[in-house]
Task: inverse folding
């Protein structure tokens, strides 16, 4: 089987090109990337999750890390976007394409890449792989690293902020797709809200889609409708963990002059929600950009080690945004909660 994959080549001049490649590998690429002295130079290949660059959330955080790699490490990068509801075979094809083109290291963004990377990495033992959000924080092979995040810890802090800022005493949570990963966001948010304000009412969580339908991570219209429902139920703060679909949540909350809480990236300055920025209370930061940069940097320094690496509040792998100064008045309380989580005094649940 052959499949044409369209890829954007990111270079210092932001040039783009389209490549056709065999889906199942086997075609050996030219030794592109070999320096004039014959030594291999790094070229980083990155495969995005659904939504790709421009989702102004999860993927854009990965993109920021890739951009930093290009700028700070002066390394060529190439990126490919995923298609909605695609099978694992397509993800494997994308990864094989990059590995066959001598891109090393190779990055898969999103837990859905875990199985594909574990499989492809066995066929390319000299290529280093990273899976962001490794499923269940598990990977296979000495040439594979999994970046895992304590989303529940960052969500605890924005849940506390939501509760402390709510005037109606009612807040809401909207998840993109009903999967265990997003349950961590919900669990932390609810726990943080209750810890900061025991009398707070947290509406039943709303999930936009059920797997295998992943539109809940990319369709803003779904976020819009869900936000309307929670606003009608009295919520004046809504936290979304819905990727691109969360743009609809933010816009709808902002139009109603109610608070929205962003996710993954600092969404305060995102162009897609410019009209609602005054109503973005904060964002739960998930430093995918740091994980991407750390991984490539380790490969470039020859200090790479397979296995998993956790990003949490102890290493600022998660956190909350201060843009807009909307939480300045409660920052001391939030930082106090952070210190208690880091010390172990507060144990944050991972399941609702």
Result:
């Amino acid at each position: 089987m052959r499949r044409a994959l369209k890829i954007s080549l990111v270079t210092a001049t932001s040039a783009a090109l389209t490549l056709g490649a065999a889906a199942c590998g086997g075609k050996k690429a030219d030794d592109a990337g070999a320096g004039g002295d014959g030594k291999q130079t790094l070229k980083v290949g990155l495969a995005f999750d659904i939504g790709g660059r421009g989702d102004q959330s999860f993927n854009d955080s990965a993109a920021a890390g890739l951009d930093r790699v290009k700028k700070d490490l002066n390394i060529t990068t190439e990126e490919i976007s995923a298609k909605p509801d695609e099978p694992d075979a397509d993800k494997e094809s994308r990864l094989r394409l990059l590995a066959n083109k001598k891109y090393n290291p190779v990055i898969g963004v999103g837990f859905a890449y875990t199985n594909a990377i574990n499989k492809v990495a066995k066929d390319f033992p000299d290529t280093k792989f990273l899976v962001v959000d490794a499923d269940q924080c598990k990977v296979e092979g000495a040439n594979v690293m999994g970046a895992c995040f304590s989303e529940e810890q960052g969500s605890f802090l924005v849940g506390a902020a939501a509760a402390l800022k709510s005037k109606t005493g009612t807040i809401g949570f909207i998840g993109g797709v009903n999967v265990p990963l997003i349950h961590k966001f919900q669990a932390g948010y609810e726990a943080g809200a209750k810890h900061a304000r025991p009398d707070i009412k947290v509406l039943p969580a709303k999930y936009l889609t059920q797997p295998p339908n992943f539109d809940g991570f990319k369709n803003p219209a779904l976020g819009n409708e869900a936000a309307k429902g929670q606003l009608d139920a009295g919520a004046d703060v809504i936290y979304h963990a819905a990727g691109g679909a969360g743009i609809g949540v933010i816009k709808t909350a902002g139009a109603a002059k109610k608070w929205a809480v962003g996710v993954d990236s600092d969404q305060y300055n995102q162009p897609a929600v410019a009209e609602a920025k005054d109503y973005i209370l904060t964002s739960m930061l998930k430093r995918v950009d740091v994980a991407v940069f750390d991984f490539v940097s380790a490969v470039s320094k020859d200090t790479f080690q397979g296995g998993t690496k956790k990003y949490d509040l102890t290493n600022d792998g998660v956190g909350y945004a201060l843009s807009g100064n909307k939480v300045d008045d409660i920052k001391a309380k939030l930082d106090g909660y952070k210190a208690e989580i880091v010390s172990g005094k507060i144990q944050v649940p991972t399941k609702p």
User: Anything to note?
Assistant: The first strand starts at residue 2 and ends at 5. DSSP finds nine helices and 16 strands in the chain.
